[in-house]
Design brief:
- There is one protein chain.
- By secondary structure, the protein is an all-alpha fold.
- The chain has ten helices and two strands, in the order H-H-H-H-E-E-H-H-H-H-H-H.
- Helix 2 (29-53) runs antiparallel to helix 10, helix 3 packs parallel to helix 8 and helix 6 packs parallel to helix 9 (231-243).
- The longest helix is centred in the C-terminal third of the chain and has 31 residues, at 251-281.
């Protein structure tokens, strides 16, 4: 019930900060970066909350699957924005997703987490929901790809930066593929036993890729594939390789250090970008001039 109430409060906050910015006359591109940038991080925690409510940790790859779905759809939404120059909403988008999450949390608070293990047509209810999620993901992704391939506003249907509409898929794959390899190749259950830490590491890498895409749309600049945050998953992958040569580090300790590194890299990037925007536009972050009150 506590998670449900917090989720309801969280749903109203984005509307309040927008009204406050317009009331005080401080609306700027920095607000868009803060709004969508914070969403790229908070969606990981919200999705984890849903996974805990449905006890998906007991399902092999269940938690990691819905995190990948959440991150991918959010990235694709901004990928289409990077191509078309405007953020478009689908029939099943943020509001509908929030309502679905609220329903799931409400059912869990009323009937307990065991309600998702009830058998339906020979399958558990949570398995059917995962399959439904997969179908909705395929439909939503096809809608985004249709916009991406046909809605480019640049020369010859390119992005707002004049680059290929296909290139933004590279940072997304650079986030997903290494973590899928790490998760599937592990000989121990360390990533299943510490799925929250593993997901936070993956979420930090994906959030930075999404933020770079948002900044690319705002500044109409070209995306760069390499980022130093990838050292986190690279270290985990190399540890698997060194295992064959009897030179490896405890996976759990390395996972913790990799997660701390990726979170620190994301934090530093957000601080630097915020300072650059504030300096360029001559605005003060977290401060409203007295003349505008």
């Amino acid at each position: 019930m506590k998670d449900l109430l917090l989720r309801l409060c969280f749903s109203f906050c984005p509307f309040l900060d927008g009204k406050q910015a317009r009331r005080t006359g401080v609306a700027s591109p920095l607000g868009e970066l803060f709004d969508h940038g914070c969403d790229s991080i908070s969606q990981v925690f919200v999705t984890l909350n849903v996974a805990f409510a449905m006890r998906l940790g007991e399902v092999r790859c269940g938690t990691f699957f819905i995190i990948i779905v959440s991150v991918s759809l959010f990235y694709c939404a901004h990928w289409s924005t990077y191509c078309t120059g405007q953020l478009r909403f689908a029939r099943f988008d943020v509001t509908e997703a929030q309502m679905t999450i609220i329903v799931i949390l409400t059912v869990t608070s009323l009937f307990g987490a065991n309600v998702w293990t009830i058998g339906v047509f020979g399958y558990q209810l949570r398995h059917l929901l995962l399959f439904t999620t997969l179908l909705l993901t395929v439909y939503q992704s096809s809608c985004y790809l249709s916009v991406i391939f046909t809605g480019g506003v640049g020369r010859n249907g390119s992005t707002v930066a004049g680059t290929s509409v296909l290139f933004p898929v590279c940072p997304l794959l650079a986030c997903i593929i290494p973590f899928c390899m790490i998760y599937s190749k592990s000989r121990t259950a360390v990533f299943d036993d510490n799925i929250t830490i593993f997901v936070l590491c993956f979420g930090a890498v994906a959030a930075k890729a999404t933020n770079r895409l948002i900044v690319g749309h705002m500044s109409r600049s070209e995306l760069v594939l390499w980022d130093w945050i990838y050292l986190g998953p690279i270290a985990l992958m190399l540890n698997h390789l060194f295992r064959y040569y009897d030179f490896w580090i405890c996976e759990r300790k390395l996972l913790i250090w990799a997660t701390l590194y990726t979170l620190a890299s994301l934090f530093v990037y957000c601080c630097v970008i915020t300072r650059q925007i504030c300096y360029h536009m001559k605005i003060q972050c977290f401060k409203v001039p007295n003349k505008r009150l």
